[in-house]
From TrEMBL:
Protein name: TetR/AcrR family transcriptional repressor of the ameABC operon
UniProtKB keywords: DNA-binding, Transcription, Transcription regulation
PROSITE patterns named among the record's database cross-references: HTH_TETR_2
Record-linked InterPro entries: Homeodomain-like_sf, HTH-type_TetR-like_transc_reg, HTH_TetR, TetR_C_27
Domain (HTH tetR-type) ranges: 1-52
Residues in the DNA-binding region annotation: 15-34
Species: Peteryoungia aggregata LMG 23059
Length: 183
């Protein structure tokens, strides 16, 4: 119910009393489960992140690692781009998660880094990538892709230009994973 109200009216416009009223319960009952309005946003974001990542995990596992990595980055970028136009109040909630440093942001990062590490390990097994530490490479890859997969950064550029730049960065990442820097 909170998510529906936030999507329809915006986070700032909805109170715990509004949510409780829609649920035919007292605000105290809502506070019993969610101590603050931001904890509701954290729960909503965590669920949404899980759904997004489940969809990302379904990306073709039989494709080569470089294609999977590219598909992952483009899917995340597209997800955030469409969210800004289709659900502008969701973007307001994303800003709350960032401003309030909610746990869901770190969970999102960790889940995506784990997915990238799995892709890198698959690339190593296929003898495409030559990386000793998949987790370290995955963290660096996530950081390099942040301007294309972070919901706030996605809104700063035209979609076609951003997609081209994302591909260029992915080409650079792929090259680095195939022949890492000498120690």
């Amino acid at each position: 119910m909170a998510e529906q109200l936030f999507r329809a009216h915006g986070y700032a416009s909805v109170t715990i009393a509004d949510i409780a009223n829609e649920l035919s319960m007292s605000p105290a009952n809502v506070f019993k489960h969610f101590r603050t309005k931001t904890s509701l946003v954290d729960a909503i974001a965590t669920r949404a992140i899980g759904e997004t990542l489940d969809a990302l995990r379904a990306l073709a596992q039989d494709r080569p690692a470089p294609e999977r990595l590219r598909a992952l980055a483009h899917q995340l970028m597209q997800e955030h781009l469409s969210g800004q136009t289709d659900a502008p109040y969701v973007f307001e909630m994303i800003l709350v998660t960032i401003r309030e440093e909610l746990d869901c942001g770190e969970r999102f990062r960790n889940m995506v880094v784990d997915m990238i590490a799995d892709i890198i390990r698959a690339g190593v097994c296929a003898d495409l990538y030559h990386v000793d530490d998949a987790e370290k490479a995955a963290n660096a890859t996530f950081d390099a892709l942040t301007c294309f997969i972070h919901p706030v950064m996605v809104g700063l550029e035209k979609a076609d230009i951003m997609a081209t730049r994302c591909d260029q960065v992915l080409d650079l990442i792929d090259t680095a994973l195939r022949a890492p820097l000498a120690k």
